[in-house]
Amino acid sequence: MSAMAVVLLSAVALWLTVSLLSAAAIGLTVPSAEVSPHLGYGVNLRYLSNVDTVFAPLGFDWVKVYERFDSMPAERLPYHVLYRIDVNHGDRWIWIDSRPYRPDLARIRADVRQIALDGLGKIDAYEIGNEPNMDWEWMDQAPDPADFVAVLRAAYEEIKAVDPGAIVVSGGIGPVGRIGGPTGAAEVCSANSGETYLGNNCRSMDERIFAREMFARGAGNHFDAFGYHPFGFAYEPERSLADLPSHDNGNGFAFRGAEAMRSVMVEFGLADKPIWATEYGWLRHPGADGEFWCYNHPDFAAAKWYALSESDQADYLVRSFQFADENWPWMGAMFIWAFDFHNVGARCWPGTYFSIRKFDGTDQGGGSLAYDALIPMSKRPGHFGPILAVDPERLTFLADVDEPSVQYAVLRPRNTGYRTLAWTATVSSGLSVTPVLSVASGLQDEPLTVTVDTSGYVTGVYAGALIVSATAPGVADSPVEIAVTLRVIPDVARTFVPIVLRASPH
After folding, report:
1. Comparing C-alpha atoms, which of 414, 477, 486, 467 is closest to residue 444?
2. 277, 387, 266: which is closest to 332 by C-alpha?
């Protein structure tokens, strides 16, 4: 085989490896080892009074409650709590530079700080806004990614100042499809910030373009999890976007639309951030509740095409958790829309039939096939606290026996989970190598310099170790032991390989 053939085969092998890694990164199904538990099992909850009664039997670990319903718990609940902060309060908007309805960032900061103070010790996570790519979040003005990033940053900074361990989730973006075609060029809107956006008809903005505009403006620095609403519409949860019918027109109206959003995150270097499905679900035909007349009511007209049988709603909800558990390691908490919104709106409002509690004239509501199916569903709740990891996982030093030296390496303790992490480091005693540490403690991502003096060692291999531990209890994967190896050899050959760049194959 020629040298050129070897190079080509190596290149093909590298391409295949990178392709598989990329597929896994954006969430496509590839053969893989067992996925560690990572999901949160949650619902959108209207009535706090239902927590101890009809919610508890589900065996879920998260509830999402709302500022608009004054749902701040009076005390710590026995569940994780996501609290939605609403941006579209009328008193949080002002006129700026003759442009109506700009967010009042000073008022938002003050309000969010007070919310965080009220929620201290009771709220685990905060969602900033709701479906910011739609006009209802902007006082019926054009959706504006630039203004949303400013709001998100203000809220993130205020929450973290009060409660550094709180999880901040960007407001869940809603699936509206390819407004203006695949590139969005056919629809252009000038928002109140003065920015002009493609894929924006001044009422809704293509969710993928909205996310790109957010990330291009640095939104990734101001959330711990990215909020998205992967509603399933008319399709089963396993249905790939490539297998949607032609009349979908590339909109990606399916549960696995989350994979398209994941690919945008990866494109902008945000692969280490999870997605949270802060709302998602399937719509039950109103006839299942005896309300056949609602199917042809004007309030229900836009939803008719994706209304399903009650049994399909139940089956798809169970299968959606199973699919995400097995295939999406980047998915975090998932919140069914909705739990008990059965009597919040008009009788033919579609939200009534997304709810897995049925209208019966009470706040508790009656059961449904979905409610009954979710109780026995197998659940593997993820860990929503810190997870300790240290890079690199081991240290190796190479020394010339005739040229002893002091050598350095840098470790970086990281938090691959949520909240905040502090660590301590100690050197294991009684081993043949005793490293010296630059510091004995720190916070996540702060470096730890390790020094080894090779003086006095004869030819051979020597071992040492150090231990990095989280300071708080309950941190996953703590402590971490870092092996330290010193190899002392007769002569260290230093070879420099030139790099030749060719403009052409000649």
Report:
1. 414
2. 277
In terms of C-beta distances under 8 Å and separation of at least 24 residues, what long-range contacts does 345-352 make, across chains too?
Answer: 346/299, 347/291, 347/294, 348/286, 348/291, 348/293, 348/294, 348/297, 348/299, 348/300, 349/299, 349/300, 350/283, 350/299, 350/300, 350/302, 350/303, 352/286, 352/289
Start-to-end CA span in the chain (Å): 21
pLDDT tens sequence for the chain (506 residues): 444 333 333 333 333 333 333 334 334 443 444 789 999 999 999 999 999 999 999 999 999 999 999 999 999 999 999 999 999 887 898 877 766 778 999 999 999 999 999 999 999 999 999 999 999 888 889 999 999 999 999 999 999 999 999 999 999 999 999 999 999 999 999 999 899 999 999 999 999 999 999 999 999 999 999 999 999 999 999 999 999 999 999 999 999 999 999 999 999 999 999 999 999 999 999 999 999 999 999 999 999 999 999 999 999 999 999 999 999 999 999 999 999 999 988 899 999 999 999 999 999 999 999 999 999 999 999 999 999 999 999 999 999 999 999 999 999 999 999 999 999 999 999 999 999 999 999 999 999 999 999 999 999 999 999 999 999 999 999 999 999 999 999 976 665 555 555 555 54
pTM of the prediction? 0.88
Beta bridge partners of 264: none
The length of the chain is: 506
Burial (CB count within 10 angstroms: exposed 0-12, middle 13-18, buried 19+), residue 448: buried
Which of 262, 278, 170 lies closest to 223 in space, CA to CA? 170
**167 vs 224: CA distance, rounded Å:** 6
List 450's β-bridge partners, or say none.
409, 437
Q: Which two tokens stand for residue 216?
A: 């291009």
